[in-house]
Design brief:
The chain has eleven helices and 36 strands. Strand 15 and strand 16 form a beta hairpin. The chain is globular, with a radius of gyration of 25 Å.
């Protein structure tokens, strides 16, 4: 008899010292997939990543092409599949330039030396021309001001727009068409027949109001005047061309109107031969699933990735209706869909319940097969059993989520200490993927003996527009009841110990944790990661501005108050909190500024609530540095151990 090999213990180092793939791109001929691999934890001040390539049929192992000690990103293929173009800061760390490399390997060739760096790029049908998006280079006056520290920032002055520019590979000259004026360029895509460029712009580089003031334009590659196709819908992205019998169309993703809170939709507009475009039609209105990406096909209608509950589906646009029709499905999570020129081969980053994110490829009709292997070290870990949940809310709305049992345990071994982890967004979701990340994640806690509940309350992604729009001006109301209903179900089923309940989350999940402890004393411990304590202050200081105001329902400048957002802000209920709270926040967070955590910390200190307040220098909304990620994993698990298993007076070992 052979002895069973020992299972690997999941350590914090094992979580953060791995790598994750992103942004796969299929060659137009469908033979190769290029993708980026990035370490989970950033060891130094600047990030690093690498460019890899693998055959789409999985016939050979993936191999590295470039990067490793520098940051590389945004791989794209030449139309003839002979080159891979990508961005790299090899020449100057922190400033990305365009490079290219052959699929067979060799030395990468630097193509630009633009002082401000290159933001994005798009190889065009003309083999010697590349469309690039780059900010204006600093002027002599800008450089003088920087050198002499004469750098007062005046709002509205010296705005450095990203502009569309055309790189001539023969001369290395970059030409900037003037037709778009002072519009901030965010996307460009060429018509598949080599025709004009469709360009998506914002009024300003700022998310608010940039995402609210979008524009569509057409521009000939050889220059000339741009055609203004009018405004796009709010939060427009993922621009693609497709052809109907009557002519060319543009489609894109955007927020379903009229509000700023709700599900994404696919909008379609017929492109006339002259003048402005026609009405922007919603092609996904009424669907109970949510589009997350569009993919242009050279010969045919586009593909789309849809979040569908706990799973993900690939759809193709039927140009006859037009409507989207499912053609294949991923049981779990998929992102970064890419396709060959004909659309018959696709690739995406996929994760299932016990398999980490890796690049998968295959026929667009499925199934997809794994072609990368970025986390082999996780194969020997004994994961907690992950179950799909379905239950009804108080009003009959069908909800889903996940339950992860403690590693090596079954339901019959319960009840267990239960930690509820709420996702961010709120327009996000817990898909049925491996729940392992640098923030307190499902398997990180399950392998330490906890049952973990991962609810998908209303407001999230994957159940259509109306489901997502429920939280407009009502965050923490019905979505909180949805979470409680799931917890009560797990208590009734004997899975959760009602005397050992914890709750936590990051971003909107951090808000929900802070909200929870002000509404009930059922929880023995809470974790608030980069969470919101005051919606009015977030609308005034966060980079998403009016979008946050739409969630909170008001702003502080709407009269003398009290304001609607006060009723939805955890800070308003701080005097009622008795639950110990662990607060963690990045010091340089521009999404949810650190003042949100400071406000909550001061309130808890004022009312004598047991808590810890941890600030991570240099970090923004997502924590990048390895040692900070390790600290979050260790500190959060110790926090729940202290209050849910050992008790507050028992020292850690």
């Amino acid at each position: 008899m052979f002895a069973t090999p020992p299972r690997a213990e999941l350590s914090d180092e094992l979580v953060v010292d791995g790598s994750t793939p992103s942004t796969p791109v299929l060659s137009p001929n469908g033979r190769w997939v290029a993708f980026i691999v990035t370490p989970v934890g950033q060891a130094d001040e600047l990030p690093v990543s690498s460019l890899w390539i693998a055959p789409a049929d999985g016939s050979e192992p993936a191999r590295q092409l470039a990067g490793g000690a520098v940051q590389v990103s945004s791989p794209r293929w030449a139309p003839d599949s002979q080159w891979i173009f990508f961005l790299s800061d090899r020449s100057e760390r922190g400033t990305a330039q365009l490079q290219r490399i052959r699929p067979a390997g060799g030395d990468a060739e630097a193509l630009t030396a633009w002082k401000s760096g290159i933001h994005d790029h798009r190889p065009l049908a003309e083999p010697d021309v590349i469309a690039v998006i780059a900010r204006d280079e600093p002027t002599d006056e800008d450089e003088r001001r920087a050198e002499q520290r004469d750098d007062a920032e005046v709002w509205g002055e010296r705005v450095r727009f990203s502009r569309l520019r055309l790189l001539d590979l023969r001369t290395r000259e970059i030409r900037t068409p003037e037709a778009l004026g002072d519009r901030h360029v965010v996307e460009v895509v060429q018509r598949p027949d080599g025709g004009p460029l469709a360009v998506l712009t914002w009024s300003t580089p700022d998310l608010d109001p940039g995402l609210l003031e979008t524009g569509l334009h057409l521009l000939a590659v050889d220059g000339g005047a741009a055609r203004d196709l009018g405004p796009a819908q709010v939060e427009a992205s993922s621009l693609v061309w497709w052809r109907a019998d009557a002519g060319w169309h543009l489609a894109y993703l955007a927020k379903t109107p009229p509000g700023l809170v709700g599900g994404a939709a696919v909008f379609d507009v017929a492109v006339p031969t002259s003048g402005k475009a026609s009405e922007h039609r919603n092609l996904t209105g009424g669907m109970s699933i949510c589009p997350s990406q569009l993919v242009q096909i050279d010969s045919g209608a586009p593909l789309a990735l849809f979040a569908d509950g706990l799973d993900t589906a690939i759809h193709r646009l039927d140009p006859a209706d037009p409507q989207f029709v499912e053609i294949s499905r991923v049981q779990g999570f998929a992102r970064f869909l890419t396709a060959s020129g004909r659309g018959d081969v696709v690739a995406a980053v996929v994760s299932t319940a016990y398999e980490p994110r890796d690049v998968h490829a295959g026929s667009s009709l499925g199934p997809l097969v794994r072609i990368s292997d970025t986390r082999p070290e996780l194969r020997d870990v004994r994961w907690g059993v992950q179950e799909r949940l379905s239950y009804a809310a108080f009003d009959g709305l069908v909800l889903d989520g996940l339950l992860i049992l403690p590693s090596g345990k079954s339901r019959q071994d319960g009840p267990f200490p239960l930690v509820t982890l709420i996702h961010g967004g709120p327009y996000d979701r817990h898909a049925d993927q491996l729940q392992l990340a640098w923030d307190p994640s499902g398997q990180w806690l399950a392998t330490a003996g906890y049952a973990v509940f991962l609810p998908n309350p209303r407001g999230g992604h994957g159940h259509g527009h109306q489901f997502a729009a429920c939280v407009a001006g009502a965050v923490g109301v019905d979505e909180w009841t949805d979470v409680l209903t799931g917890i009560d179900m797990l208590v009734a089923d004997g899975v959760a110990d009602p005397d050992r309940l914890g709750i936590g989350g990051w971003s909107h999940g951090g808000f929900m944790a802070a909200w929870a402890v002000g509404q009930t004393d059922r929880f023995k411990a809470a974790f608030m990661g980069a969470g919101i304590s005051d919606w009015g202050m977030l609308a005034a200081t966060g980079e998403w501005g009016r979008f946050e105001a739409a969630l909170g329902g008001s702003t502080g400048w709407e009269g003398t108050g009290p304001h609607h957002h006060d009723r939805l802000s955890p800070i308003s209920f701080a005097s009622k909190i008795r639950t110990p709270v662990l607060i963690m926040h990045g010091k340089n967070d521009t999404n949810v500024p650190i003042a949100q955590a400071e406000f909550f910390h001061r309130a808890l200190r004022r009312f004598g609530v047991e808590h810890e307040y941890v600030v991570y220098p240099r970090e923004n909304h997502s924590i990048r540095e390895r040692n900070h990620q390790l600290d979050i994993l260790r500190r959060s698990r110790e926090w729940f151990d202290r209050w849910l298993t050992r008790g507050p007076d028992v020292p850690s070992s």
